[in-house]
Amino acid sequence: MDFNYEIIGTLAAILTTISFVPQVVKIWKLKSAENVSLSMYLVLFTGLILWLWYGFLIDSFSIKFANTITLVLVSFIIYFKIKYK
Question: How far apart are CA 23 and CA 74, in angstroms?
Fold first, then answer.
């Protein structure tokens, strides 16, 4: 039996990626990112870029998918943190 491990990776990618949506929505609705750590999200942003690069190096759909979408969400959080400072 040939199991496609990318299925597990894609499911994990979807779950971990959507975990950022409530934070983005909350910041956007409240127009405040006061309790959000900019340094934490900058480190996360850097890590996501490295994961994305790794995903391209090993040609993994789930890694590329998750980190591309999460980069967008984290970029919004960083943008709002700077804008609403």
Answer: 9
Q: Write out pLDDT tens, residues 50-65.
A: 999 999 999 998 899 8
Predicted TM-score (pTM) of the model is 0.84
AA letter at 67: N
- Tell me, what CATH number does 25's domain have? 1.20.1280.290
How many angstroms separate the CA atoms of 78 and 85, rounded? Answer: 11
Cβ-based neighbours of 14, under 8 Å, separated by 6 or more: 66
The total number of structural domains in the chain stands at: 1
Outline where DSSP puts E strands in 4-85: none
Beta-strand runs (E) in the chain = none
d(CA 49, CA 39): 16
What CA–CA distance (Å, rounded) separates 49 from 66?
11
